[in-house]
Structure formats: C-alpha cells, structure tokens
Amino acid sequence: MTLSPYAPIVGLFALAAFFALFSVASARIAGPRRYNRAKLDAYECGIEPSPQPVGGGRFPIKFYLTAMLFIVFDIEIIFLYPWAVSFDQLGLFGFVEMVMFIGTVFIAYAYVWRRGGLDWD
Amino acid sequence: MTTPAVYLAQDPTLADFGHDPWWISLIKVVAAFVFAVLATLLGVWFERRVVGFMQVRPGPNQVGPFGLLQTLADGLKMAFKEDILPKGADKVVYFFAPTISVICAVTALAVIPFGPMVSMFGHQTPLQVTDVSVAVLVILAASSMGIYGIVLGGWASGSTYPLLGGLRSSAQMISYEVAMGLSIVAVFMTAGTMSTSGIVAAQAGSDRSASLGGFEFFAPGWYAILLLPSFIIYFISAVGETNRAPFDLPEAESELVAGFMTEYSSLKFALFMLAEYVNMVTVSAVATTLFLGGWRAPWPISIWDGANSGWFGLIWFFAKVILLVFVFVWLRGTLPRLRYDQFMRLGWRVLLPINLVWILALAGIRVLQKENSDAVRWGIIGGALLVILLITLAWPDRRKQPPRPLQEQVNARPQGSFPLPPMDLVVPPSPRARRGVAQRQPANVGGGAPDVVDTTSTEEKED
What we know:
The complex is a heterodimer of chains A (121) and B (463). Chain A has 121 residues and is mainly alpha-helical. Chain A has helices spanning 7-30, 37-40, 61-85, 87-114. Chain A is flat. In chain B, the strands form 2 sheets. In chain B, strands 1-2 form a two-stranded antiparallel ribbon. A two-stranded antiparallel sheet of chain B has the order 3-4. Chain B is mainly α. Chain B: It comes from Asanoa siamensis.
C-alpha cells in the first residue's frame, strides 16, 4: 500500500500536535501548584497591574495598516509564483504581462509611500 | 543548457515520491521529528557556547561532555516548574497558542530534502519525508501559520507586555514574509519548479566547468551565487521572520520584559523556545536547499563521484545548515537591536522595492537571452532605461519640511478648539540649584572669559 505524497505532511503535523499537546497537558500535572494572588496577576514590573479592558483593548492603527499592505503584496506574490514557475514557457508574453502587473502594484506602492503609509511614526 | 548525466543519476524527482510503504514513511516522519527536537537541544547549546566564545567566557560546560546536555537539563527543570494560568488570560487560546507555534515549525520540515536516494531496509527511497509539486508553498504556509501561535499567545495572556510583543511580532513577521516570498520568486523562475528536490537538482544542473590552458575551472550552480541579491534578501528576511537578533523586537528585554511569552511558564514557555529554534533550523535548511545546493557536496569535494551518493548527502546538508545557524548566532553576538521604525522601514522601503526591481531585471535578462529578434531586444532595453528614468524623476525626495513655527500651528487650529494655555511659560530654575551653582564656581580651564554667574541679586531677593 502506498500513500499520497501529502500524507507524510499530515503525519508529521499529527506527531508534532501529539507532542505539543502532551507537553502542555503534562506540565499541568508535573509541576507544583502553590498559587497565590501575585503569581496569577498580570506581570507589570512588580506594581499593581493596570486594569485590562475585555478582549485586549485597542492598539495603534499602524498595525491594521501594515496588515492591509501585507494583503496587497501577498496577493501580488501569489500571482507571481505560478508565473515564475512557468516563466520559460510563457516567454516574452509572460514578461510583458508581468511588467504591467508589477507596474500597477508599484503605483499603489508609490502612492502609499508618498502618503506616509510606510512611516512608522 | 546541457546537464551532465552523472550529476542527475540518483537525483530523486517528484515521480520518486509517494511510493514508500507506510512504515518507511512512518520512519521518515519520526526521524524528521527527532531531528527537530535534537536540533533544538543542540542548537541552544551551540548558540550559548558560540556566544560565550565571542564574549570570552566558557558558556555552559558542566552538564555532560562539553556541556552538551545542558539544554536537556534545562528542559527537564522546566517540566517540573509551576504552570501558571494568569487571571486575565483567555484560557483556551492561552493553552493552545504554544502548540500552534510548535506544530507549524515542525511541519515545515516535511518537505526539506536531506539527501539523495538511499537504500532503506531494501527499499530505494529518497532521503526526504515527502515532496510535492508545491513544496515551497507548504514551507511558507507553515511558517506563516506559526505567527498565529505568537500573536494569539500574546493576546490571550491578558497582560500589557505580551499584547504589545504579540502585535509587534505579527506586524514584523508579515512585513518580512512579503520580502521572503518575493526573494524566492527568482529561484522558481530559474529552476522552473517549486518542488524542493527539483530545485536541488536544478542547481546541480546549472554547474558549469570550463577548461582553460590545461586547468579545469568550475563554477557551482548554487543560486546563492547566480541569484546573489535574492539570497541576501532571503537571509535578512529569514532573520526577521524568526524573531532573531538583531530583529528580536517582539521580545526586546529592555522594553517588553520577554514580549509575547512574558506570562508563560513551565513547558509552555519551553515550547515557544522549541518553536523558535526549530524555525531557525528550518529557515537555514530552506536556505541550504534553495540557494546553497541542498545536500550536494560543495565544489572541491564534489569532484569525487561518491560524495553525492547515498548517506553522504546528510553530511553536506548538515554542514551547510550548521554554517547558516552559526551565522544566525554570529549576528546575535555582534549586532545591537534595531529600533522598531527603522526595522519596518528596512522591510517595506528597502527590501521590497529592491526585490521587485530585481525580479523584473532578472526576467528581462532571461527573455533577452532567448529572444532572437533585435526589435524586441531593443524594446526591452529601451523600456528598462525609460523605467529607470521615470523612477529617478519621481523618486520621493528626502528633504524634510522645516517644522512650522509654534504661532503658525496655533493659528491653524480649527474653530472651537480647546483654549490654549500661555505658550511662553518658562519653568523657573529651582532656588536650591542656584545656590549650588554659586558655591561651586567652575574652574576657568579654557582660558577664555570667565563665565561668572551673577547670583547675588537673587540670593538677596530670597533673603
């Protein structure tokens, strides 16, 4: 009996999952349990922890902006991969098409740059 | 492109995978997992020893021969430490976050080629867990999913430092994911495949040798040489992707205590460490496979035909991986940590545009090589020159606007803004400080006009 070439990936995934879950669960059992209030508090350099809003609260908009930029360029990469693999078959046509595509994304990139979307502060 | 038949004789191809009996697959899976764990145990020891050597101190040398068992001892110690679940934590996510990190880190090893075809218990099988036609995508997918472990771990801790560390690391990893993804496009373009074993074979196929005046010259077809910019960008983004120094901002000790793992203890903490080191080994192994010829022997050794056959492949593979891991440690021992905005600027403003331009340039060069018509050639060259000209003209200039004067900023405020306090207030110097200055007249060393501070009048006023 032979396996699909994808099966060992699932196998390694399962083995790693078993190991990780076993470690996390066994740590609960193996270690001592002498809890007190200070140990269970959030760590904040030894002072009384500041109250936390439910769900982690708000954080700077820059992180959302970075995530959106990531999606733009990740999709560009997704289109680049099949093009790169079959580059030799596509020839000149593929090259011209990709110049136009990268050029389009590059305009968006230049726009984001000029508008300060890439400045962190 | 002529390919020497000798080189590709025992190269596994995609057709060689998927024929193993299940128990051989199982052996390979277990071996890959053991490799991941051993790599962590030895990697931590290696890093501490090398950093110790760089800082002129011995490093761990007590537990076992040369301190080799130090990491094992640390791991055992951590297993018997108290497992703390913080009060503010989201319990389920907090519990699963380290497992996500470890699973994703280990899964990526499934498609790394460790060696050529070998005979394992009477079966001819490639020394690689498996290979698929989108193998590099599997690696990228696994390493991207690993981000979830970190960002969820930071978020679920219900604490300030881990939240900031998790956010930072997610922003950092997705930024460098873009650079990393773009840097390997050039490899796919040159190799014409995404299967890892195929890329190793393609690098061997692009070896060149020439005979000149009785001497044999040899140029290895490693993509690290052919595609040097890609290799440099890949390595920089690999350091960013694995959160290693000098890009270890998510766990910057001086700002964030321990970043996303501040609230983790016991084996959960150990799992994050495991994931970090497995990731480091994985990106090194991927760099070896994509850029350094994989398991093939480096040049002077590869003259000997046997060097590339059978289990010898493992030696060259591990030698290259250890070399790259050493570079990781070397970077950590040498470079100070970057500031966050500098770091993001490097990713988005330097690596990304260089990458895109390099891909287009490489594509243009490859098309030029194949194209025969002069009109097309001059068209491409002219187009490239035009693009360079346009970019130079439209390049965002660095000149900064001088800061607007205060009064202008105040006048520009919209109607109905909050009233402003007087803007010319100056904090009066403390009278005690003045007295101190008066008592300690500075010695006039330079020989210029003595800078006497007249304090008598104020003293009298105070009295």
